[in-house]
Fold:
Amino acid sequence: MEVIKGGVTAAKGFWAAGAEAGVKYRNRKDMAMIYCPTPCRAAGVFTSNVVKAAPVLWDKEIVEKGNGVQAVVVNSGIANACTGKTGYAYCRQTAEAAAAALGIPADGVLIGSTGVIGMQLPMDRITEGVRKLAAAVAPGAEAGHTAAQAIMTTDTVPKETAVKLTVGGKEAVVGGMCKGAGMIHPNMCTMLAYVTTDVNISAALLQEALSADVQDTFNMVSVDGDTSTNDTLLVLANGLAGNPEITEKNEDYAAFCAALHAVNETLSKKIAGDGEGATALFETKVIHADTKENAKKLAKSVITSNLTKAAVFGHDANCGRIMCALGYSGVQFDPERVSLWLESAAGKILVYEDGLATDYSEEEATKILSCPEVTALVDMKMGDCEAAAWGCDLTYDYVKINADYRS
Amino acid sequence: MEVIKGGVTAAKGFWAAGAEAGVKYRNRKDMAMIYCPTPCRAAGVFTSNVVKAAPVLWDKEIVEKGNGVQAVVVNSGIANACTGKTGYAYCRQTAEAAAAALGIPADGVLIGSTGVIGMQLPMDRITEGVRKLAAAVAPGAEAGHTAAQAIMTTDTVPKETAVKLTVGGKEAVVGGMCKGAGMIHPNMCTMLAYVTTDVNISAALLQEALSADVQDTFNMVSVDGDTSTNDTLLVLANGLAGNPEITEKNEDYAAFCAALHAVNETLSKKIAGDGEGATALFETKVIHADTKENAKKLAKSVITSNLTKAAVFGHDANCGRIMCALGYSGVQFDPERVSLWLESAAGKILVYEDGLATDYSEEEATKILSCPEVTALVDMKMGDCEAAAWGCDLTYDYVKINADYRS
Structure:
């Protein structure tokens, strides 16, 4: 497996486009399309929020139907959540507009929306946007990059990645794009992620691989603890790599899962590092926990602690807050066995040993915490399970962005 | 029942003091003492954090022993958490110093600490502080107020309240003080609260009344979702009102519970309204939920949502965030039945009706959200259970305070 340039159009047969539709934002691209001339197998995971946006309901149905998917249409600016039957009908209208413009069936069109909750979409602009997208859709890295830009809301950078793998003797690619900076606490956020691959794999195994991997990747990210109404992660597989179809959990499946994991983990970390207002990616790795589940709970409790996040912003090694967040995670453990390191490109220091603060250098700790990627490494000394979770610091800009998001 | 002036010294027989001990802060009082010449029955509830501060361990033992309590010694600045056996021994030394100075048994002395985690207490200054306190301790509102000031950390105001009630034909008082502004998400934070009463009540019923009431008061407050290592709520009852001892759940017990609830709820709201950096108390009331437990989960989910809190700071009626927070609370419900009002001294408006945003006036909503106390009223239309939770807005100052708390 090798990381390559590109994103959602890196795999054979996937086209994309971005367009300015004026849904809510002005003077920027705010609609994106992914298109594949070959029908794709699709797998998806969606928000666990009881309040589910209309496009989430639409996509779940399409994925469950199992027909070939050929297009994804996404808008930023308005989330189409809390919009009732009208909002759902708008999903259908959007799909129908895309189907007509592309000459494909409407039940092969997935929909994504991200932005303000509680507003209806301006359907005239959406359908006009769909026509522009269908006319502009094209293969190549440039087109994929434009799509990744169009789905941004408060994101500061477009988020893409791709890897190359060999499967059944054939070269294949898994690539993807995502967006998400606030309301990010996916259990399955407004996190939208679209992964494409030319690997030939059965629909059942595609879904199984996705459902398993999301537990260790997107679901381990939190910017603010708010699980969105719109979280959607979709994988489309068109089979154009020409490998024999993966229908069992053999080494080809393992190769695909490894590639999918690499793409999902990279996209997850891009979301965490670009969290609203964030100046740093804050990772917590828990090792030697008694169970995987507990390792995950502990790691996630630390990266979601507002006090810890504010301390990371201040480059302040106030690690008692990390001990505190471990303590309220819901996991039982002996505090007097826990050791804790801070780690980054600037070095690594032990700050707590067996539950007690060490005599570490504050200066060195501050240097370590001043890097754009910071890790807290927690040794529970209970077993052999581990997990990582990704968040970001809590900054003035997070408050600024969210105190006047709608204006 | 009637609200009266005063706090921890409002009930007969309770004395208090504050003193400057230089534990960590400079030029301010940082140690407090409550003293009662008459041995008291004591009840307590403590943090659910696995990482428990040394004074929490000490107080639990003292309360469980059930000997008469005669003094409480509290310091601010250092939490005495993650301090191991040494930290626990320091609790004993503090109690012994107080016992010697006051001429009472050491196991009648409760200890409280709040501040930075992971540092050891400077015991020379603590014992000197205890001597000062024992010399200064006095009855009266002034002494109680000084104690309430001395236990503050990032609090901006001292927090006290008291009520008068009649019980068994006698006039009695329940009064209290508390502190807490950050690391506030009591499940049973550094929330320290001390309630005193002259009501004559059995130790068992005192604990039962406290344990029940904390569920609807302090445990429904959240500033930042971080459950502290030090949360402690203690009630001391000296019996000096002269009422026949309350030993069963009769109308005297009900009168005491109502007074205790009034004191606990007022102190809880004072903590929420003075949350670190807060400009507003943000209350969420959920009505017509199917169960009390669900009503509480829903209310708490809204007041802990960072996005909602930031919107309150911005006076922005971005109520989709409230719908979203209800949705990820863990409670199952039909989003299309939920109605939502915003309410404050400036008025009340319906912003969501049956799951859909109404055509409300943004101007009016902003006016309502600009008050120092704001309520979101949520009607679930499922049953007859209700709950309230109290939080605050998320502001630049919260980040500022917590990015450099230790410096």
